[in-house]
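As a warm-up, study this chain.
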Amino acid sequence: MLAVTRRLFRAAPRAQRWLATTSDIPTKTQPTIARRAGSDSNTDREADQQFSLQWPGATPKTVLIIKKANDKQVDSALASISRWLHREYPQINLVLEPPVHRQFRHTLPFTRTIPLGVHSEYARTVDFVVTLGGDGTFLHVSSLFPTQVPPIIPFSMGTLGFLLPFNVSDFQSQLRRVIEGSATLLPRMRLMYAKYSADGALNERGLLNITNEACIHRGTYPHLTTISCYLNDHLLTTSVGDG
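Now compare it with the structure written out below.
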């Protein structure tokens, strides 16, 4: 009679995947916006050129790279820019959004990410932002920063590029100027948007930062709608419409 010995095999636990985040990165370097010396013109075009971005006593520590999705040309540009930054400025941390970091974690192992739901890390760590795409990619950056947005270097690689002054083929010289504190800065203002009901109650979403405009849709309400628009508590205009 044969005795059969049964062996119980227990699956070995999977090795935990290490995720490089920004938790150990120091707080960002606070830049200064300096007025360029020797510029006395009052024209709008030259007034835009009167400001420069400087990093007093330090250099930027962290750059966030935002890219347009599902575009092979943009993916190639992101890889080239990341490798160049890592080679020329190894002290700078390169941060990608979580989906992009997952996509490039093997080809760009030196990059980091900020986990979903930890938006405060963007404001704490990011010194400046590089965008690769169109105007939509540029405007997406605004949603990541609830208050002040860091300087953005937008490279035009999308369908629309009204807000994008830089060509990606020139990225090396443009990034070098920003990092070394010799870049020209064009300040832009964001608006704070709030929606109140007729009884003065603030909408549940609270105060929102908007870059260009707010679209108010009547939804299923079938009648004419009256909208009063205020800026800093001053009435700008009142509009009546059905659309």
